[in-house]
Amino acid sequence: MAQKWRYLPAIFCMLAIFITSSRSGEQLDSILPWVQKWLPGLTDFNPMHYVAYFILGLTVAFAMGRRAATWRGLALNVAICVLYGLTDEWHQSYVPMRSPDPMDLLHDGIGAAVAGLIVLIFFVLFNRRGSKYYT
């Protein structure tokens, strides 16, 4: 079983997602031009769902430890992230100028699934080589 401290990055990531989701549509619109200076092709924050839930998927995998390196662990990782995404969409229904969107939940799941697949592939590759890093 993973040590409890390993869950801290996932909790911090969930907290960051919650804080960002608490911003009103007006607040996000005021931040967008600033972000576009670094990402000129960005027209809205929808792609950030992939990024946020990719990072969440990595942190959940870290918390899971060795279990993340299985198909069952991958499924559990994605399920945790999608369930959190579902609560996040529900939370947004109470934020001014924000609304829940099923497509956001799909993007959340894709980001988490990609992270989980990368972790699975990484662990499989390093385990085949007899790496000491497979823990």
Structural class category: mainly alpha
Q: Please mark out the parts with pLDDT under 50 across 5 or more consecutive residues, or reply none.
A: none
Portion of residues within helices: 55-70%
Q: Report the β-strand fraction as a percent range.
A: under 5%
Number of strands: 0
Number of domains: 1
Characterise the protein shown here.
This protein has 135 residues and is an all-alpha fold. The protein has one domain. It contains five helices and no strands. Helix 3 packs across helix 5. It is elongated. The N and C termini lie close together (11 Å).
Defining traits:
membrane; mainly alpha; transmembrane; 0% strand; 135 residues; elongated; 5 helices; single chain; VanZ family protein
Give the structure's gist in a few sentences:
Residues 45-122 form the VanZ-like domain. With 135 residues, this protein is an all-alpha fold.
Outline the secondary-structure elements.
Blueprint: H1 8-21, H2 25-36, H3 48-64, H4 71-92, H5 102-128
Helix pairs in contact: 1-3, 1-4, 3-4, 3-5, 4-5
